[in-house]
Backbone:
């Protein structure tokens, strides 16, 4: 009888440790799944935020581009839209028509137009266009510049201590331990 009781105890110990080990593995697996699910959720949220910002940025750019195209259409029709700087052609002594704008000469064009359209609070679309008026193939235009430019104030990030190159070997904010 003592032998039977001893065998029973051994069986109980074995089954308890077996159940305990599998329970620990199951708990570990569930924790891994929870961590991966939270990481996936975090990534999806960040991607959604980036997509929203990207969509807004593209929409603002194309809204400004459409407005600039409208200004260009008005210029081609011979109008002078508000906010556009126009340089008229002049005829030199040799009889060659040229447009002088900021020291650059353009031959055989009637006007040089420069304008900008605001994209957002920190960016604008800057355009420079050469225009030729006439009938048929004589009329035309050439876009010299159609560029998105950052116009906001640049603020350097000084939050990280970096070697300043002032001759010292110490980083700002660090102290030297003397022996």
Residues:
């Amino acid at each position: 009888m003592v032998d039977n009781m001893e065998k029973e105890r051994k069986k109980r110990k074995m089954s308890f440790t077996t159940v305990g080990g599998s329970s620990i593995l199951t708990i570990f697996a569930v924790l891994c799944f929870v961590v991966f699910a939270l990481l996936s959720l975090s990534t999806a949220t960040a991607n959604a935020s980036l997509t929203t910002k990207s969509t807004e940025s593209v929409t603002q750019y194309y809204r400004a581009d459409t407005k600039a195209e409208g200004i260009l259409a008005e210029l081609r029709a011979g109008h002078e839209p508000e906010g556009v700087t126009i340089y008229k052609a002049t005829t030199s002594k040799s009889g060659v028509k040229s447009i002088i704008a900021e020291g650059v000469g353009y031959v055989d064009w009637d006007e040089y137009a420069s304008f900008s359209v605001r994209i957002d609070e920190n960016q604008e679309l800057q355009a420079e266009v050469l225009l030729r008026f006439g009938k048929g193939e004589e009329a035309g235009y050439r876009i010299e510049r159609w560029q998105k430019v950052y116009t906001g104030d640049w603020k350097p990030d000084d939050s990280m201590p970096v070697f300043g190159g002032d001759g010292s070997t110490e980083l700002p904010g660090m102290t030297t331990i003397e022996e």
